[in-house]
């Protein structure tokens, strides 16, 4: 049902986003994100942030699309995976719009939405997605009739790892972009633990080592940030490349906030060109959490004959998504 005018609502974590799409055309994509000067996300506070702003974000998106709520054919909301209190605000907004304006709705999986928006806005046809965000890090592809996870983090997401180190060295939240700026000032590589286990990656050992080296005061912080990026991103790309080889796919698609990183983009392009593959990178506004990706995915899967439940699924895995 891709020609429906769909309002997509994203609220899995720090961002409350509303996108309005028609087919693969994005008419509006507005968001408001919860940030802190120090410390990480406190789920209840992020949810309070979303409660405060959700009506405004919805009305800003309608204004940007030059539409009225009565023009909306479908509401698509992210039902998971994510933080329960934050997901509940997206659910509440959906429920209100559904009850007041009788607009049908569908819930979608946030990780799948990162893959679908990339396919919709780039020329990628059948890619392997490297999805590296705050909480999630997975290598995903549609294979054998369903979305499958070929590799993933065994502990924290790449973004949370970056942010944890950023916090440790006093950069506030989110630390990823600030680490990237510091890394650009160095090309002095310090050898760090490289943890690829089969098709999975792990960041906690790397984080511990980085904290120790930072505390030792023997290294410049720029050198630590540079070496951190080189090591962590090489781990992600080793697993992505192996997934491409295993699935016999020659397209890599990037998704997730960490993919805004210029060095990760560059390394991805190098890996793809070395194996005669293609690298597809959506605009940064579509890499980070956003409502347009939820709208595009909901419109793709919506079946008007099906009855959908208004519910959240905080722990839904990519490979649990039902495909009809
Ligand atoms: P997401 O959860 O997909 O919205 O992504 C948020 C994560 O992306 C946070 O952990 C950020 O630190 C990280 N991030 C955003 N921009 C960059 C960047 N330029 N380099 C590295 N990480 C980034
Ligand atoms: Mg995300």
Straight-line N-to-C gap: 14 Å
CATH superfamily of the largest domain: ATPase, nucleotide binding domain
- Derived from helix and strand composition plus strand pairing, the structural class reads alpha/beta
Mean pLDDT: 96
Strand order, main sheet: write it out. Answer: 3-2-1-4-5
The shape, in one word, is: globular
Looking at CATH, which topology of the largest domain would you report? Nucleotidyltransferase, domain 5
Low-confidence stretches: none
Give me a quick take on this structure:
The chain has 324 residues and is of the alpha/beta class. It is 43% helix and 20% strand.
Account of the 3D structure:
This protein has ten helices and twelve strands. With 324 residues, it is an alpha/beta fold. A hairpin with a 4-residue loop joins β6 and β7. The longest helix has 27 residues, at 221-247. The strands form three sheets. Strands 3-2-1-4-5 form a five-stranded mixed beta sheet, with helices on both faces. Strands 8-7-6-11-12 form a five-stranded mixed beta sheet, with helices on both faces. Strands 9-10 form a two-stranded antiparallel ribbon. The chain has two domains: 5-114 and 286-320, Nucleotidyltransferase, domain 5 (2-Layer Sandwich), CATH 3.30.420; 126-281, ATPase, nucleotide binding domain (Nucleotidyltransferase, domain 5, 2-Layer Sandwich). The structure holds adenosine monophosphate and magnesium ion (MG). Adenosine monophosphate is lined by residues 13, 133-134, 159, 162-163, 174-177, 180, 256-258, 260-261, 288-289. Residues 13, 133-134, 159, 162-163, 174-177, 180, 256-258, 260-261, 288-289 line the site of adenosine monophosphate.
């Amino acid at each position: 049902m891709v020609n429906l005018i769909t309002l997509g609502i994203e609220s899995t974590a720090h961002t409350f986003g509303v996108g309005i799409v028609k087919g693969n055309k994005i008419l509006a994509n507005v968001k408001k994100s919860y940030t802190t000067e120090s410390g990480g996300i406190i789920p209840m506070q992020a949810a309070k942030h979303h409660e405060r702003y959700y009506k405004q974000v919805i009305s800003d998106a309608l204004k940007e699309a030059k539409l009225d709520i009565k023009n909306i054919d479908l509401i698509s909301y992210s039902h998971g995976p994510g933080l329960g209190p934050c997901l509940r605000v997206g659910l509440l907004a959906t429920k209100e719009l559904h009850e007041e304006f009788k607009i049908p709705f569908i819930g979608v999986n946030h990780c799948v939405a990162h893959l679908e928006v990339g396919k919709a806005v780039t020329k990628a046809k059948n890619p392997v997605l490297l999805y590296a965000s705050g909480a999630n890090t997975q290598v995903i592809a549609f294979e054998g009739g369903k979305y499958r996870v070929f590799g993933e983090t065994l502990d924290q997401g790449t973004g949370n790892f970056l942010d944890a180190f950023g916090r440790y060295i006093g950069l506030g939240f989110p630390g990823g972009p600030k680490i990237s700026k510091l890394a650009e000032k160095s090309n002095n590589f310090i050898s760090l633990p490289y943890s690829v286990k089969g098709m999975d990656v792990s960041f906690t050992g790397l984080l511990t080592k980085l904290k120790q080296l930072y505390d030792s005061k023997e290294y410049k912080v720029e050198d630590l940030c540079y070496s951190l990026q080189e090591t962590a991103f090489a781990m992600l790309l080793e697993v992505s490349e192996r997934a491409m080889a295993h699935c016999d796919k020659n397209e890599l698609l990037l998704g997730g906030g960490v993919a805004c990183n210029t060095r990760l983009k560059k390394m991805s392009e190098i890996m793809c060109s070395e194996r005669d593959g293609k690298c597809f990178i959506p605009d940064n506004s579509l890499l980070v959490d956003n409502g347009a990706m939820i709208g595009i995915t909901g419109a793709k899967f919506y079946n008007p004959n099906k009855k959908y439940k208004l519910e959240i699924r905080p722990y839904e895995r990519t490979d649990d998504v039902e495909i009809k």
